[in-house]
Design brief:
It is built from one helix and ten strands. With about 140 residues, the chain is mainly β. It has one domain. It has a seven-stranded antiparallel beta sheet with strand order 4-5-6-7-8-9-10. The chain has a three-stranded antiparallel beta sheet with strand order 1-2-3, with helices on one face. Strand 2 and strand 3 form a beta hairpin.
């Protein structure tokens, strides 16, 4: 079976839509937990467009020379995560507590994005391959 899915965040609201064969909706989730998850996904994907990190609605706090906490507040939704960089300033990982959806309900779980490969575009070095892992009883990696 083939499933397609998308996350979006518009006007302060998130949505997760998953369809069977790209036609039949099987998940159409909205709400505060989805809103928080959409902000975290946005933050994690900032590594592909680094200028987004300069937006006024993102506050940065230095933890140490290679780690920073980012808190994004937008349209009444707030989410935070930790960015790690190597000694050259390359992105290494982003970690946050994100809602994971189960039949019994949603729980906050550790969610980790890690860089695998890098490329340079117009003089800016960014990761070109990421892994996205839920740290559950057993790691669940969604994207590689």
């Amino acid at each position: 079976m083939y499933f397609s899915g998308r996350d979006k965040y518009m006007g302060g609201e998130g949505q997760m839509l998953i369809k069977l064969f790209s036609l039949i909706p099987v998940v159409d989730a909205k709400g505060k937990e989805i809103d928080q998850g959409a902000l975290l996904r946005y933050m994690g994907e900032m590594v592909w467009y680094p200028s987004a990190a300069l937006n006024d609605y993102i506050a940065w706090e230095e933890i140490n020379s290679t780690t920073a906490k980012a808190t994004m507040s937008y349209k009444g939704v707030t989410a935070s995560g930790t960015f790690k960089f190597d000694e050259n300033g390359d992105f290494v990982s982003f970690e946050a507590e994100r809602y994971y959806y189960r039949k019994e309900g949603s729980t906050l779980e550790r969610w980790v994005i890690k860089a695998k490969d890098y490329g340079e575009f117009e003089g800016i070095r960014i990761p070109v391959n990421l892994s996205v892992t839920w740290k559950l009883e057993r790691d669940f990696t969604k994207c590689r």
